[in-house]
Inverse folding.
């Protein structure tokens, strides 16, 4: 990416963060109504993002 | 304000941040090609699916802004999700799509991101409901979202990125490459529908 550092990724992380926050809150409300599906469906993306966060900070620390 | 109208406007606004990132980190040519092609792909594909296939339709009671038979938000949806997947995948793989370093890993990770994204996006779409499913076979994940959508999202990332790479490297001005990439969506759409058809055949064979 033309030598840009990973810290420059904030314009990508904000839309993803907004989306996840919205879905997590919505998912929590759904659990309250006895429908855990939305919250459970966040797990695969959560695993992907965990990998991203681990990699991002290991790159940032290097 | 209606919740879905708010979401449609929010998604369009957040796409602006991705375009800003692309302009700043990848340049004007990349941005023009990627987001113009993505917009055309979304609008054409979703209209084609709604008009000519038995896969699904968008719920007219949910969306407010439309282009033909597709919600306007589909004009940014594919470039929005694929761009996020691409950017995160490049960090994880330590690679670059256009630079060529670990390109295979970047594309595979982007496909994995799209499949993971499909899980919650389609569950949300099914719960509220934004989409009316007509898939066969109808094997589902959480919330009634078809298993097929994971395959479909991953395939869209694959075709989009595989078409993008050679077009980006053409020795043409940015506008010319954007036009070529936009035109290539006419090839991407039937290929992607074929990719979905292949999965449905495999699923039917597996469940026979």
């Amino acid at each position: 990416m033309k030598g840009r550092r990973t810290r420059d990724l904030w314009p990508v992380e904000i839309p993803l963060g907004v989306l996840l926050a919205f879905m997590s809150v919505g998912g929590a409300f759904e659990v309250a109504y006895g429908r855990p599906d939305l919250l459970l469906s966040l797990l695969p993306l959560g695993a992907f993002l965990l990998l991203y966060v681990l990699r991002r900070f290991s790159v940032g620390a290097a | 304000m209606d919740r879905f109208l708010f979401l449609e406007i929010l998604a369009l606004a957040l796409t602006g941040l991705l375009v800003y990132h692309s302009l700043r980190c990848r340049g004007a040519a990349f941005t023009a090609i990627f987001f113009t092609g993505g917009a055309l792909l979304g609008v054409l594909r979703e209209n084609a699916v709604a008009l000519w296939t038995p896969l699904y339709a968008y719920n007219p009671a949910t969306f407010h802004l439309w282009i033909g038979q597709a919600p306007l938000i589909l004009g940014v949806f594919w470039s929005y999700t694929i761009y996020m997947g691409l950017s995160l995948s490049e960090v994880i793989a330590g690679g670059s799509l256009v630079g060529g370093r670990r390109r295979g890993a970047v594309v595979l990770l982007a496909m994995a991101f799209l499949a993971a994204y499909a899980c919650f996006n389609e569950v949300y779409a099914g719960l509220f409901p934004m989409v009316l499913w007509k898939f066969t076979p109808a094997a589902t994940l959480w919330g009634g979202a078809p298993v097929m959508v994971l395959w479909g999202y991953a395939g869209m990332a694959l075709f989009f990125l595989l078409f993008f790479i050679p077009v980006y490297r053409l020795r043409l001005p940015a506008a010319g490459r954007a036009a070529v990439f936009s035109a290539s969506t006419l090839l991407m759409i039937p290929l992607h529908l074929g990719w979905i058809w292949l999965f449905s055949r495999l699923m039917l064979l597996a469940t026979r």
In short: The interface with chain A takes residues 7, 10, 14-15, 17-18, 20-21, 24-27, 80, 83-84, 87-88, 90-92, 94, 96, 112-113, 115-117, 119-120, 123-124, 127, 141-143, 145 of chain B (CB under 8 Å). Residues 44 and 179 of chain B are 15 Å apart (CA to CA). The mean pLDDT of chain B is 88.
